[in-house]
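Work Package 3 (structural annotation) set out to generate three-dimensional models for the target panel prioritized at the project kickoff. During this period the team completed the workflow that converts sequence records into discrete structure tokens, so that structures can be stored uniformly alongside our sequence database. As a representative example, we reproduce one entry of 220 residues exactly as it appears in the project archive.
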Amino acid sequence: MTRYALYLGCTVPVRGLNYEMSARKVAERLGVGLVDVEGFSCCGFPAKPLNWRAGLLMAARNLALAEAQGLDILTLCSACTGTLTDANYRLKEDAGLRAWANEQLAEMDQVYNGTVRVRHFARMLYEEIGVEQLRQTVMVSLSDFGFAPHYGCHYLKPSHLYDGFDDPENPKSLDRLIEATGAHVVHYEDESQCCGGGILGFDEETALLVSKQKLDHVTA
């Protein structure tokens, strides 16, 4: 059985409990082991605009916790995926930055070695389980339903962080996963655009307008 450190982040346990429950059920059905790592905390995404190094250190701490257990990280939130993947990339590529991070981590009796991988749950399904196996595992076809994919800003971009996974300008992975359930894909205007989450903290009105526009296009 493949085992991952399940990283929930801050939002999923509070606003997306149904998402977490579904992910755990799907993983169990597919024989994927999910390990809850004690001490996981915020990925650092909210801190980056205020203090980039503080945000990086928050991510490095979570990476180190998973490394200590010999596990790769499986994420549910795309913002967490992007933040942890970016930190992992920077720390691996920059020896000076890695040394600085390890100086800080040493005060918490932790060390980052650069051996951990970060994977979004959907990417794990697409690459490591595969669409055909998913199709064969489906117990109830969703052929009466249509789902509109939202790839967002962090699932595939910046592309150099994701090892060529999918096409960031014309992505298909979520489409194929939807089709594997028997459902049909609903395409819509502005499908590849931001949901507004990136500006929610300082311009809520505009952020909600961006989200509303996307939802209006889905239901048009």
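Residues 152 and 194 are 5 Å apart (CA to CA).
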